[in-house]
Every structure is written in C-alpha cells, then in structure tokens.
Automatic annotation (TrEMBL):
InterPro entries: PG_synth_SpoVB, Poly_Biosynth_Transport, Polysacc_synth
Source organism: Oceanobacillus jeddahense
Transmembrane segments: 12-30, 50-71, 91-113, 125-143, 164-185, 191-211, 239-259, 291-310, 322-347, 367-385, 392-412, 418-437, 458-479, 485-507
Keywords, in A-Z order: Cell membrane, Membrane, Transmembrane, Transmembrane helix
Protein name, per record: Oligosaccharide flippase family protein
Locations listed in the record: Cell membrane
Statement: the UniProt record of this protein carries the keyword GTP-binding: no
Regions annotated as coiled coil: none
Chief location: membrane
UniProt topology in membrane: Multi-pass membrane protein
Domain of life, per lineage: Bacteria
C-alpha cells in the first residue's frame, strides 16, 4: 500500500468514526424524545424492536461492507476489473440468499419471538421488521466497493443521512401517538418504517457517490479472463464468516438489549407482576440504554482515534511505537470510563429528572451505569485485538457474554426485578472485559497494560471531582429539580465543569506521559496544562 493510500485510509477511518459518533448521539437523543412523548410503555415497545433493526443496520454498515471492501481492494491490487459476472453478481447472490433466508426465518418465527417477548401483539411488527434485512445486501455492496477504493465519505454521509431520516420519522410518529392520532402499538410500525426509509435514503446517497466517482476508481491494467472461475469458496468464507464476525464486534450493547427484549417482561410476569406494570418496568430500565450508548461511544471514540495506527504488521516492524499507541488507548479509555461512571452516578437523579421528567428507576439505573466502564474498556480492547487480526475470537467473546446475560436474566430478574437485569448486564460485560483483557495479555505478554497506569493520579482526580459534584449538588439541586430549563443549565454546567476538573487534575498529577498526550487529539492544548506546575 502506498503512503498516499495509507493516509487516505487513516483519514477515512477517522471520518467513519466521526460519522458513527454523530449517529449514536442522534440515536440517544431521539430515544429520549420518544420516551418523553409516549411514556415508558411507548419506549418499551420501541425497545422490543430496536435490537432486530439495529442488527440489520450493523450488518449493512460495518460487517458486510468490511468484507466486501477487503475483496474489492484485493481485486484492484491485482489489476482486475470489478465486472458484473465475476464480482457484483456472486456477491449479491451470496448476500441476497443469506438475507432472504434470514428474513424468512424472522418472518415465520415471529409468533415464537412474540411469545418469548411476552406479547402476541408484536407478531406483525416482527414480521414487518424482517423486511429490513432485504435491503442490507445492496447497501453493503455499494458501501463495501467504495470503501475498498478508499472512499469513506459515501459510507459516512449515507450513515448520517440514514439516521436523520430515521430520527425525523420516529419523532413524527411518536408525536402523533402523543396526540392520540395513532394507537400506542403504532410505535413499532413507525420504527420499522423509519428504518426502511433511512435505508432507502442511504442507498440513494451511495448511488449518487458511486456514479459520480466511478470514473475515478483505480484503473485496471488487465481484465480477468471471461472463463476464469469465480472463487465461490473465497467469497462465501470472506462475506459470511468475516462479515458476520466483524459486525458482531459492533453489536455488544445490542446483544444486551436483545437478551432483555426476550427475557425481561416474561420473567417478571411469570413471577406474578401484572403485564402493564412489567412493561412499564422494562421501559424504565431501558432509560439507561441511551446514556450507556452515548457515554460509551464518546469515551471509546477518543481512544479509538488512535486505533488506525495499530496493525499486526506495524507491531512487528515498529513494536515500541505501536505498544505506546495501545497503552495510550487503554489508559485514556480507562480514565474516561471511570470518570464518567463516577460523575454520572452522583448526578443521576438530576439527569433522570431532566431527561425523563421523573425519578423512577434511579437506584436500579445507577447500578446499570457501572456497565459503562466495562463496555467502554472492552470495546477499546476488542478494537485493538481486531486491529491485530483477531476478529473471529473477539466475536466469540461477545457471543459468550450474550449467553451470560441471557442466563443471568433468567436467574436474577425473578429474584431482584429491575435490579436483577442491571446486575446481569454488569456481570455479562465484566465477563467480556475479562476475556478480551486476558487475550490482550496473551497476545502482548511484555506490555504492562495496567501496571503502567497512574492509579494515584486517577484517585486524586476522581476524589476532586466527587467532592466538587457533591458540593454543587448540595447547594443547587433543590432549587433546580422542578424547573426543567434551569435543570438543563445546571446539568450541562456541572457535567462540563466536573469533567474539566477531572481532566485538569489528571494532567497536573501526571496521569498521562507527554509522549501519550502527543498522540491524542488537541494535544497542544493538553500539553499546555500538563507542562504547568505539577500539583
């Protein structure tokens, strides 16, 4: 790969990360608005469908495009033309067949899925959701081809456009439900329609870029023979094995929600809880999902900006430099995760009141917030392992954590209700974290990942932030809790100032070395703080 292509690849990875961050923030915001408009019951109904729709989105956005881009890059490096007969048709045939089978499986098992979810009214919605998988092959094809040519803008812009259409459609549907124009169960239909419209809009963006840039693609020096056999085995293995496992590595939190969708309400009802009460409890529990998602993504994205500089080849050639990148990514992720968990744990009553207009579930969700640390650090660790070539293994670890979540839900929800579901999430993500960290140590036995962390600096920064937040809370919380706009100002101010204090103390006490700070975004600003007089 030339230096120019490497530069384009790194910039493209950063562009995709930014697009992913923007989309996740949109996702968190619209779900909060949805709950405000339709209440916890409406939120529960949406969350019952969201994991299925999210899986389709991940397959179309991350999994199969990654596999197709790998095949595309390989063919172009050989100087081959991407022909309809030799490339497009077999790829579409393989992906199309797989997704038709998957859609059929979901469609015909909808009664069973609805029974598992504890609500037969979901049968038609699950059947409708199956249609979302039918547009995945075409979306994945055009994203993958353009990524294989190092053109990341089409994927990034199509992702943002897709999310904007989805957000607007869902909010519009929720608003009509709140006015009484539609019934509550229309939320499910709206969610599927929003996903389909978003997918179609993404396809339109991708097609525009494809036809605009088709003449700027890498020139081929030779065309393959028309009689050359299509490498079906290679295509099937790359598309299905690599594609599915690559997608799974982006589905950690989705799998947690999928387990909750089919175990939470049924286990509560089996324990004697009334159906409406069980659904409301599920809706309250789901309040934590947008917060976990957005904090995890923000926390991990800063560290993940370093990941494009990591690869197995670079590890062999520039081991010391790559080890520094890995240590920095892990240290930053741990600092952000712990700071976010501590801060959010303290101010969660105000956050709950601000976002959801009451304090329901504050205790249970405070426990769930602990999973932010596990999810953030495990996502960073998994991404490092993927960069070192261990994609299948990290997917297996995620599958194990999913099974732990299902089994834990079945045992703990009847015993402890919503607290049980929170414990199950924390436990399953802890298992995932343990597995990926053990694998990271096995892969890099000579790297002191955690011994090199300045725990003293982390402790001082954490205590400083906690004292500050508790003082501010004791002074202002009682005055702002029942005036929403004042509460918004208070939460924003205390969040930003608390995070700023945490970062300031962390840098002043030497939490990161100068070499590590130089790797981070906005390093010049951070270095000015670091080079000041130590505390």
């Amino acid at each position: 790969m030339s230096d120019n292509e490497t530069s384009r690849l790194v910039k493209g990875a950063l562009l995709l990360s930014i697009a992913g961050l923007i989309s996740k923030v949109f996702s968190a915001v619209y779900r909060i608005v949805l709950q405000n408009l339709t209440g916890d019951i409406g939120f529960y109904m949406y969350q019952q469908l969201y994991p299925l729709l999210g899986i389709a989105t991940m397959l179309a956005l991350y999994g199969f495009p990654s596999a197709i881009s790998s095949l595309t890059a390989t063919e172009l490096e050989k100087g081959n033309i991407l022909s309809w007969k030799g490339f497009y048709r077999p790829v579409l045939l393989i992906l199309g067949s797989f997704h038709i089978l998957l859609a059929a499986l979901i469609y015909f098992s909808a009664p069973l899925l609805a029974q598992l979810a504890g609500d037969e009214d979901f049968i038609e919605m699950y059947q409708l959701a199956a249609a979302m998988f039918l547009i995945v092959p075409v979306l994945a094809l055009f994203r993958g081809i353009q990524q294989g040519r190092y053109e990341m803008a089409p994927t990034a812009l199509s992702q943002i456009g897709e999310q904007l259409i989805r957000v607007c459609t869902i909010i519009a549907g929720a608003w009509l439900v709140s006015l009484g124009v539609f019934q509550m169960y229309t939320i499910g239909t709206t969610a599927v329609l929003a996903s389909l419209l978003g997918g179609i809009s993404a396809l339109a963006v991708l097609l525009c870029f494809y036809y605009k840039n088709r003449n700027n693609a890498h020139p081929a020096v030779q065309a393959p023979s028309t009689e050359e056999a299509i490498p079906w085995e290679k295509y099937v293995k790359t598309l299905l094995l690599f594609g599915i496992t690559a997608a799974m590595n982006h589905m950690t939190l989705l799998f947690m929600q999928l387990a909750d969708a089919f175990t939470f309400v049924p286990k509560l009802m089996a324990d004697g809880v009334e159906e409406i009460a069980a659904k409301e409890m599920k809706g309250v529990f789901d309040r934590g999902q947008p917060l976990i998602q957005v904090v995890t993504i923000i926390g991990s994205s800063i560290a993940l900006a370093i990941i494009p500089a990591i690869s197995y080849q670079k590890l062999k050639e520039q081991r010391r430099q790559v080890m520094n990148y890995i240590q920095t990514a892990m240290h930053v992720g741990i600092f952000i995760a712990i700071g976010a968990v501590l801060g959010l744990f303290i101010i969660f009553p105000e956050v709950n009141q601000l976002l959801y207009k009451n304090l329901q579930g504050t205790g249970e969700l405070r426990l769930l917030i602990l999973s932010i640390a596990m999810s953030t650090i495990s996502i960073i660790s998994s991404s490092i392992l993927q960069s070192l070539g261990m994609i299948v293994r990290t997917a297996v670890f995620i599958g194990i954590s999913f099974m732990v979540k299902v089994c834990s839900n079945l045992i703990l929800i009847p015993l402890y209700g919503v607290y049980g579901a929170s414990i199950a999430t924390v436990l399953s993500l802890s298992v995932l974290l343990l597995l990926v960290v053990m694998e990271l140590y096995r892969k890099l036995p000579d790297m002191p990942l955690y011994r090199s962390i300045s725990w003293k600096s982390l402790a001082i920064a954490s205590v400083s932030m906690i004292i500050y937040l508790l003082i501010m809370q004791s002074i202002f919380s009682g005055f702002v809790m029942h005036i929403r706009w004042l509460l918004l100002v208070y939460v924003l101010f205390i969040s930003v100032s608390g995070a700023g204090l945490f970062l300031f103390v962390l840098l002043k006490t030497g939490g990161l070395t100068e070499a590590q700070i130089r790797i981070l975004p906005k390093s010049a600003f951070l270095l000015r703080i670091y080079r000041g007089k130590r505390l």
